[in-house]
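no rush on this but wanted to send it before i forget. theres a chain ive been looking at and ive put its sequence and its fold in token form underneath. please have a look and point out which stretches look like helix strand or loop to you. thanks a lot i owe you, the record is right below:
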Amino acid sequence: MDEVKVHKKILLTLSGVAVIVLCYYAGGFLSKLVHGFISPSVMGMLVLFGLLKSGIVKREWVEIVAQFFLDNLMLFFIPVTAGVALVPFSSIQNDLIAIVVSVSVSSFLVLWVVGKIADKFESMRDGNE
């Protein structure tokens, strides 16, 4: 790999980090405007999505950093899993049914919506719609 490619990769990585961090902070600002109804991270993802769709941010600028996050996604779930595992059963015992139902329903809804969206994109890619 020659020096120019290395410098380009470094610049793309730094620009990707900068764009993602700025989108997160913009999401935090927007989240405060709606009084925390939507979390800053979700608002930041919506900001990033809007910037990507509008062409203001190019996919290449964030691709390296986004791929790094996707490749290491399991690491982000370890603190949540450890936190849930450390909760004493007696503190959630009274709400166990509500927790199980809400986790089951929300998981089903997420899978269903993602499946529908994937079907839609697949049919659009094949030219059926």
